[in-house]
Amino acid sequence: MAAEVTFADGNHREREAAARLLADTPRRTEVTVGADKAYDTVGFVESMSEQGIKPHVAQNTTKRRSAIDGRTTRHGGYGASQILRKLVEHPFGWLKSAAGLWQVKSRGRDRVDLTFTFGMAVYNLVRLRNLLWVPA
Predict the structure, then answer these.
(1) Angle value at C-alpha 20, between 19 and 23, nearest 5 degrees
(2) Distance between CA 33 and CA 22 in Å, rounded?
(3) pLDDT given for residue 122 in this prediction
(4) Residue 65 has what pLDDT?
(5) Which of 28, 29, 38, 27 minimizes the C-alpha distance to 18?
(6) Rounded average pLDDT per 10-residue block, the chain, 136 residues
(7) Which three-class secondary structure string do you get for the chain?
(8) CA–CA separation, 117 vs 10, rounded Å?
(9) Sign of the CA dihedral running 68, 15, 50, 82
């Protein structure tokens, strides 16, 4: 639905972009978002709760306290989200292998953003073709 390139600064901008993109996403009655440990911060979890989104973020308990508490993790939907969030990595793997974006050949954030967004759109078309394909 949406894609955005951010500067690599330790996931701060990545979390901000995720919150911004999710704010523009059309809603159903109940919305959840699955994410990895980098998103287990008080700021991201609070911004999701303010938007009415249940954050199903992987708990980061290695060196600090997690922002996700037992009220979230005890539900079956949390476990399902943790399994399904791995599907998010498939488009990035496809971009690196089939689309040739293992090494970005353009310079400048605007050009890289255009290349990335175009690659994600093509991935959606390829996926749609595979979903609609009917054997002869």
Answers:
(1) 85
(2) 9
(3) 92
(4) 76
(5) 38
(6) 80 83 80 81 87 83 75 74 79 87 87 90 88 77
(7) CCCCCCCCCCCHHHHHHHHHHHHCCCCCCCEEEEECHHHCCHHHHHHHHHCCEEEEECCCCCCCCCCCCHHHHCCHHHHHHHHHHHHHHHHHHHHHHCCCCCCCCCCCHHHHHHHHHHHHHHHHHHHHHHHHCCCC
(8) 22
(9) negative
Query: What's CA 67's distance to the chain center, in Å?
Result: 18
Which two tokens mark 91?
Answer: 């488009």
Largest distance between two CA atoms of the chain: 55
